[in-house]
Amino acid sequence: MKSMFNVRSVMALAILSAAMGGFAPAHAASPTSERAVILRHVTKYVAEEVDDEAKKRTITAKSRLREDLDLDWGTIGAVCSDVEDNFDMDIPDETEQSFKTVGEIVNYIMTHEHTTPAPN
Q: CATH fold of 29-110, please?
């Protein structure tokens, strides 16, 4: 039996549906988009902990926790506690103390089993 759809018609339907907001193609749920969601959450947790002077700066993946954001080990621990609570995961104390940048926290989340909270 011959299929009523060919590859070209399926692709056209997928493109049209995605353009109309009907569904997101499979590549839309890429690791990059998950990384962006995780980064938004982590920068939010960091922003809640920094002092007023550091709040004036943009927090990015490259932001250094101690040098740029002036976080002490206790505050980094508080950020990690927020991550543990919101991503339903555990971060060992020795790992918390090894984090140098916001991006290292994001990388840790990406490479360990976790539950990603809804985008904010």
A: 1.10.1200
